């Protein structure tokens, strides 16, 4: 379950435009379950000016993954910790790629040499 920065990802999958009712229909989860996962900081919908929750297709995929893990007996705390680790790994990977690029640019290293 990957988390993405919506400001940087313009993919349709990351756009928060889906109402909780549609999410409920697509996932089979109750609105209460969806809100509970939000309360447990496992999913982060945006809010419209009127306060309506808006989800993305990425959120729906995350909700399905969360529901499957909970069904398998995994606690929400463990899921949140796993999400934090994945996010840290993503940041490390991006940072390492940036550093490699800077070093390659600085020292003229060509790819494939």
TrEMBL record:
Keyword Repressor listed? The answer is: yes
MF-aspect GO terms: DNA binding; DNA-binding transcription factor activity
Q: Domain of life, per the record?
A: Bacteria
Instruction: Provide the HTH merR-type domain boundaries.
Output: 17-85
| Pfam families on file | MerR_1
Keyword tags? DNA-binding, Repressor, Transcription, Transcription regulation
Q: Does the keyword Signal apply?
A: no
Q: Which InterPro entries match?
A: DNA-bd_dom_put_sf (IPR009061), MerR-type_HTH_dom (IPR000551), MerR_fam (IPR047057)
**Could you tell me what this protein is called?**
Transcriptional regulator
Lineage, opening ranks: Bacteria, Bacillati, Bacillota, Bacilli, Bacillales
């Amino acid at each position: 379950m990957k988390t993405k920065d919506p400001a940087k990802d313009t993919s349709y999958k990351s756009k928060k435009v889906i109402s909780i009712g549609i999410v409920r229909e697509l996932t089979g989860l109750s609105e209460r379950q969806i809100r509970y996962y939000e309360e447990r900081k496992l999913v982060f919908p945006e809010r419209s000016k009127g306060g309506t929750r808006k989800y993305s297709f990425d959120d729906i995929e995350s909700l399905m993954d969360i529901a499957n893990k909970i069904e398998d007996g995994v606690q929400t705390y463990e899921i949140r910790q796993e999400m934090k680790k994945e996010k840290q790994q993503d940041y490390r990977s991006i940072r390492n790629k940036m550093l490699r690029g800077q070093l390659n640019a600085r020292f003229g290293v060509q790819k494939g040499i």
